[in-house]
């Protein structure tokens, strides 16, 4: 029986995680769950965002399903202080999850929920492949005598493996996003991407794009993109920008892959502390993350497709939470998806 390390986290995390488990139990009957507190909940309970026991449980699991972590209660500008987000960085580093996959595909039923014109987003179907264990978020940092620094470091092997992941996911074109007109790390990135393309994937088109130009084109011509590959910080920003093509940050799932052990599946959205505990959070991003877990983590394509189809059909019939302009509760959306299953 596959065992899932369930990490509900903070804010709306526990609410949407419970919805996802309800959906999972409707399509598969053999999953077991090992639940642990992480993030702010972990700090409150244990004094750390991720305990060694929890990390061990994640390593032993078949997949990790994560809600969301963080919130104002644990935010601080003090250097060296434990932060809720430390749980994410620990998971990614210890499990070797270097590839973050973020599919961006606006659903037909929600075209009018996007702030972009319908004719711009019709037919958009892209994948953002974000490098997840290098760059600014993992480099040396500090604040000394009024001077702060964050270090971006990338090695050739780190770039090679994420670029390969992008080409392997593509059918016709990969857009590599960097800032090669300014950054040495980007110049190395571009040269490695060019070599991997020529040596291993010449049948796939490779396009280089500066990150500022990519940000503009995501809004002006999103259908241009098939697969975008980029480093950690740029990927973090661009994928959140791209989420608005779907109408709401609450809609998007993500999968973090690459290690020899389990992968991590989580929604793109944050903890939304302003609506936590009210039962009105949009659970769709979490439910679709569970579908990604079925597909990429457990190899259950039919069940994953069933969940995704049920979400589509529920939306076609009009169910909407507040972020999509409706009034449905978390429980009502979950029930609507269950009925379609």
What's the structural blueprint in terms of helices and strands?
Elements: E1 3-9, H1 13-27, E2 32-35, H2 40-46, H3 52-60, E3 63-68, H4 86-95, E4 99-104, H5 118-121, E5 126-131, E6 141-144, E7 147-150, H6 156-169, E8 173-178, H7 184-200, E9 205-210, H8 211-220, E10 227-230, H9 232-243, E11 253-257, E12 264-267, H10 284-297, H11 301-316, H12 330-340
Parallel strand pairs: 1-2, 1-3, 3-12, 5-10, 8-9, 8-10
Antiparallel strand pairs: 4-5, 4-11, 6-7, 11-12
Can you walk me through this structure?
With 341 residues, this protein is an alpha/beta fold. It folds into two domains: 189 residues, 3-Layer(aba) Sandwich (Isopropylmalate Dehydrogenase); 132 residues, 3-Layer(aba) Sandwich (Isopropylmalate Dehydrogenase). Helices cover 41% and strands 18% of the residues. It has a ten-stranded mixed sheet, with helices on both faces. Helix 1 packs across helix 10 and helix 6 packs across helix 7. The two termini are 22 Å apart.
Number of DSSP strand runs: 12
Distance between the termini: 22 Å
Strand order of the largest sheet: 2-1-3-12-11-4-5-10-8-9
Q: In what range is the share of β-strand residues?
A: 15-25%
Mean pLDDT: 94
Order of helical and strand elements: EHEHHEHEHEEEHEHEHEHEEHHH
Number of domains: 2
Per CATH, which architecture of the largest domain?
3-Layer(aba) Sandwich
């Amino acid at each position: 029986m596959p065992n899932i390390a369930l990490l509900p986290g903070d804010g709306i995390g526990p609410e949407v995680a419970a919805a996802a488990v309800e959906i999972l139990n409707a399509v598969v009957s053999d999953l077991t769950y090992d639940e642990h507190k992480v993030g702010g909940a972990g700090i409150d309970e244990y004094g750390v965002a991720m305990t060694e026991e929890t990390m061990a449980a994640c390593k032993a699991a078949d997949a990790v399903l994560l809600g969301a972590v963080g919130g104002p209660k644990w935010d601080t500008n003090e250097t060296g202080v434990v932060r809720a987000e430390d749980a994410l960085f620990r998971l990614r580093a210890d499990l070797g999850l270097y590839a973050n996959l973020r599919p961006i595909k606006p659903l037909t039923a929600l075209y009018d929920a996007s702030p972009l014109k319908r004719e711009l987003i019709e037919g958009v179907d892209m994948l953002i492949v974000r490098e997840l264990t290098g760059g600014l978020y993992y480099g040396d940092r500090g604040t000394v005598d009024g001077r702060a620094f964050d270090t971006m470091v990338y090695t050739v092997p780190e770039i090679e493996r994420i670029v390969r992941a992008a080409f392997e996911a593509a059918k016709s074109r990969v857009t590599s996003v960097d800032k090669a007109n300014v950054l040495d790390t980007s110049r190395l990135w571009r040269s490695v991407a060019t070599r991997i393309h020529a040596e291993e994937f010449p049948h796939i088109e490779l396009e280089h794009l500066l990150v500022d130009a990519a940000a503009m084109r995501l809004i002006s011509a999103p259908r241009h993109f098939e697969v975008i590959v980029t480093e950690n910080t740029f990927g973090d920003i661009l994928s959140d920008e791209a989420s608005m093509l779907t109408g709401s940050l609450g809609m998007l799932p993500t999968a973090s892959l690459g290690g020899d052990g389990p992968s991590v599946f989580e929604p793109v959205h944050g903890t939304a502390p302003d609506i936590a505990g009210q039962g009105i959070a949009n659970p769709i991003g979490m439910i679709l993350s569970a579908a990604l877990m079925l597909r990429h983590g457990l190899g259950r394509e039919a069940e994953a497709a069933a969940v995704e189809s049920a979400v589509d059909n529920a939306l076609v019939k009009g169910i909407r939470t507040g972020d999509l302009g409706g009034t449905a509760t978390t429980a009502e959306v979950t029930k609507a998806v269950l009925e379609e299953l």
